[in-house]
Amino acid sequence: MKTTKLITLATILGTCAFTAAQEEANRPERPKREIPPEVLKQFDTDKDGKLSETEKAAMQEAMKAKAEERKAKMLEKYDADHDGKLSDAEREVMRADREAKHKEIVEKYDANKNGKLDPDEVAAARAAGEDLPPMRGRGGPGGPDGPGHKGGPKGHGGPGAPPDGGTPPPPAE
User: Fold this and answer.
1) Confidence band (pLDDT; 50, 70, 90) for 7?
2) 3-state helix, strand, coil in the chain (%, to 5)
3) Residue 17: CA atoms inside 13 Å, Cβ hemisphere, count?
4) Closest Cα to residue 105, out of 90, 85, 91, 122?
5) Which long-range contacts (CB under 8 A, 24 or more apart) does 101-108 make?
6) Which of 115, 74, 113 is closest to 93 using CA atoms?
7) pTM of the prediction?
């Protein structure tokens, strides 16, 4: 009786291990992300072309500080009642301002007139001194509706994510 249970258990464990190995073998290899040259220039202190753990930590601290700075500016501008947080009404004012600014930047830098900023157009806007937010968010890379989000089909974005990986068009009114 004990032998039968042990054989059954070993068979089940072996099958699970075999299945896991099969799934791992079928998984496509992710392309290695290139570190943007401006990031290397700023944080690669030993100039070896990659970021060490210390350099990554310094980059993360700098990014965290920049995010805190953006948050402080946002509160300074939109926190009308000065309570240190944004109410729904204050958020709506901020959202409207951001949408207007986004529309203005797209109209100005959308060279191919496709209604969105491609990476080269974003680079041109930043080079001209435009203060663009990080390219993330609902439709951006890693955002809940964007390419690369694990919640979408096969990790390729959520509903409405365009097949080319670009920003989805704004909702129709």
Assistant:
1) confident
2) 55, 0, 45
3) 6
4) 122
5) 105/130, 105/132
6) 74
7) 0.49
